[in-house]
Amino acid sequence: MTTASAFEPLISSAWGQPQSWTLEHYRQRGGYESLKKTLEMAPAAIIDEVKKSNLRGRGGAGFPTGLKWSFVPKDNPKPKYLTVNADESEPGTFKDRYILSLDPHMMLEGIAIAAYALGVHTCYIYMRGEFKHPAERTQAAIQEAYKAGIFGKTLLGKDFELNCYLVRGAGAYICGEETALLESLEGKKGWPRLKPPFPAVVGLFGSPTVINNVETLSNVPHIFARGADWYSKLGTEKSGGTRLVCLSGTVNRPGVYEIPLQTTVSELIFGDTYGRGLPEGRSVKAVIPGGSSAPVLSPNELDVALEFEALRLKQTMAGSGGVIVMDDTSCMVRCLWRVARFYAEESCGQCTPCREGTPWQTRLLRKIEEGRGEMADLEMLSHVASSIAPYPPMGLGNTICALGDAAALPTHSFLMRFRAEFEAHIHEKRCPFGDKPWGAFGDWS
Amino acid sequence: MAEPLFTPEEQKKFDAGIAEILSHYPPDRKSAGMLPALRLLQDLKGWCPPEGIRLVAKNLEVTPERAYEVATFYVMYHLKKPGKYTIDVCTNLSCSLRGAEKMLAYLEGKLGLKAGEANEKFTLRETECLASCGTAPCLQVNEDHHENLTKARVDELLAKLT
């Protein structure tokens, strides 16, 4: 067990230091030493070590990384690809922006280790189009790595060619879904593919492809710096290492925090090291614990670790680490309307339940928020959400990809936990919060 | 005769850019360069004019329809000539909890535009999440990111946009 006081950050350790994004700074901190070590190892042994570390994907699904790597077929004659998902776009999530801007070499070292282990000679980093500054920093780091002989014809002097290219998206949240990302990388609109086949077998250009999140790959060098046993012990039984969480909304000190996985939602919001609570006189009404798609928690549910298994037991999810806090004067209908609008805007339109259902949810919520709602609208809202994805279970919706689930889950959970507030809008024929629906910081000045 | 799309200088940059983009993909996968090629076009012209999209299609050896399909799917490609400055204001949940709706209303008043409208100088848009929730409210001016915005900082920013 790691206690908060003895806690040593891995991913964010250099943030705030001058020039932390440069190769020189990264090398001074022992950068690329793990890559040197792994180049002495057999690829299968590298994958085993990652498996032993209990590293789980940090993009949202929490899938074990070593296991994902082991799915790549050894006997397929086609070239293999590594793709980095840097398409961070889920409301509440903003951690990759910091890694890409402040310590891109940590991710590049993870890429090099993964590529060598997987026999990959080409890596594409797919980054959201809006990230101009992070893209500039990452591109500069890639160029430094080429110049230093890390990428290129040889991998740190070893006879292993590795090329790494940065590709920028053009404003589509759906391209963070791994198969939509591949479509986009192939130069098409981002329509998710049916699975199976999974990308590890049939991915980019029809070839075996591993897709990892920015934070996931940034963890890889640390596993080899001090060993898988050490790394796995930092976390919980089923999840190794530390975690970046993104705290936003009505808290005194929002930001990205690297935490031990045992940290609870409550500690994150109120702890001195982290959020330092809410403005005076305000209390928590609701918390989204893992990005806007994660079912919302009530104030009496906050004593739960920000960890995949623990949050699943509460019928929500750790997702991409986006914790959004709403105070007691925030309007839950208005909050859900904002979330619903996002999914309606970002639905790719391929599946009818999602294409039609997400704007339908938005229209109903707007009607209720504006005081024009009827009780039948609440039943209809619930029905529309169920048509996109029933609740529970999670992850078994009526659409090709999980965007449908992501759009329906917040609706189900807000209705379940805050139904009285929806009914009050209907009975009073107005928003009970009037023109101040956004809580402590909503009165911008 | 219609004016050529590119000046000789732009043509040179376009050709070099396309060659660089194509070098990142297998030779039989030229069409994979679609997103970067459209970005290159937009960087050169400020938007993606129809003849430019057709030129991208030609260079990537795909039909113009295929290039249009991509250009219309993604929100960052301007299919109409935008104002000199495109202001994208994030109004998603975390930003709205910290005043983004009021900031947008303030900008609408200052610019005399509703979200979604444009004049010669400005295009004002409401956008869905800029992944900067911890430093809300935020906006982007032509992809340049600005965060932790107050009224005073918005005023300062607008004053710089001439």
UniProtKB/TrEMBL annotation, chain B:
PANTHER family with a match to the protein in the record: NADH DEHYDROGENASE [UBIQUINONE] FLAVOPROTEIN 2, MITOCHONDRIAL, NADH DEHYDROGENASE UBIQUINONE FLAVOPROTEIN 2, MITOCHONDRIAL
By its UniProt entry, which Pfam families does this protein fall under?
2Fe-2S_thioredx (PF01257)
Q: What's the domain of life for this entry? A: Bacteria
Q: Does the keyword Lyase apply?
A: no
- What organism does the record attribute this protein to? Stigmatella ashevillensis
The question of whether Iron-sulfur is a record keyword is answered with: yes
Its family? Belongs to the complex I 24 kDa subunit family.
CDD domains named among the record's database cross-references: TRX_Fd_NuoE (cd03064)
Name of the featured protein: NAD(P)H-dependent oxidoreductase subunit E
Endpoints of the signal sequence: none
Q: Which UniProt keywords apply?
A: 2Fe-2S, Iron, Iron-sulfur, Metal-binding
Listed SUPFAM superfamilies: Thioredoxin-like
Q: Which prosthetic group or cofactor does it need?
A: [2Fe-2S] cluster
* InterPro entries associated with the record: NuoE-like (IPR002023), NuoE_dom (IPR042128), NuoE_N (IPR041921), Thioredoxin-like_sf (IPR036249)
